[in-house]
Amino acid sequence: MKKPITIKDLAKSLNISVATVSRALRNSNEISSETKKAVLKLAKEMHYHPNLLARGLINKKSKILGVVVPTINRQFWSNSISGIENIAYKDGYKVMIFQSAESFQKEVEIVETLANSRVDGILIAFSKETREYEHIQQVLDRGIPVLLFERVCDELNTSKVVTDDFFGAKRITQHLILRGKKHIAYLGGPQVLAVCRERFLGFKSAMDDAGLPISPEHVIETDDFTFEIAKNGIYQLWNSNNKPDAVFCFADILAIGALDACKELGIRVPEQLALAGFGNDDTSRFVSPSLTTMSQPSFEMGQLAAKLILEEINSEEEDEFDFKTEIIKPNLIVRESS
């Protein structure tokens, strides 16, 4: 295998010192413009690539952030990553992206890999299986900043960026009630996840305030977030003797699956069954009927998360850093499905 070109190779070819080449590559003012041009020209010709990790060991910073999300094929997570990268790049940082695939074990392995790679900070949204947080505490104990976003916990002393899920779920349930719906079902993810639990509690609070009972068979807790699971949920609800007149779905992906099931069953939406989602994915505008949902500014949440962790990384008073929890309120988007 061909050995990578090093600074020593550049220095030897130009008959200058390694230190001069290093300073030229860093655009140091100590080096003449002519020398810089010569070094950069040769570096390009010889396909020299800097060892960012080695440079980080010298500078005490790798200028790399690690991002861990459950999956990258949902719009909320991909938008959040874009927001993180947008801010990180402006501050000279690169972003390493990993997906846990909703696996706790994979999440633990990813976090250990990132910590051992000497990233300057880790931004993470927990998997649906995550119940323990020792793997994160160990990273914090090593002095590596960690920021939690969207899927968080109370056990860790870190900065956090979250959606006001209780508020959003209550607001959209109130909307369905104002539309005259009295038998509203909830189709949501595993309530061991704080985000799922908060959305269910928001739904319950709106129903309680309106004096509307929640039928136990109208609460379906899914173990994943897929179209097929949502479709099965609608079939289950509609085949019961106690049919709902509306369904609030934890996320747009579930609401779109529910809408597809309604078409298969011949259910008129919203006349027979109103539907509402959460997230405002792009697809929610283009399905027919278009989907009522709660809009989450996911790109902006990613930007805010990046700003907070960079603020911590760049803080000179590390031991006294004031961790922040930013709570973002979603906005109701009323469309045809309700």
Structure write-up:
The chain is 44% helix and 15% strand. Strands 2-1-3-4-5-11 form a six-stranded parallel beta sheet, sandwiched between helices. The protein is an alpha/beta fold. It is elongated and about 85 Å long. The protein folds into three domains: 7-50, Orthogonal Bundle (434 Repressor (Amino-terminal Domain)), CATH 1.10.260.40; 63-163 and 298-329, Response regulator (Rossmann fold); 165-295, Response regulator (Rossmann fold, 3-Layer(aba) Sandwich), CATH 3.40.50.2300. Keywords: DNA-binding, Transcription, Transcription regulation. This is LacI family transcriptional regulator. GO terms for molecular function: DNA-binding transcription factor activity; transcription cis-regulatory region binding. Residues 5-59 form the HTH lacI-type domain.
Provide keyphrases for this structure.
single chain; 338 residues; alpha/beta; 434 Repressor (Amino-terminal Domain); Rossmann fold; six-stranded parallel β-sheet; four-stranded parallel β-sheet; 13 helices
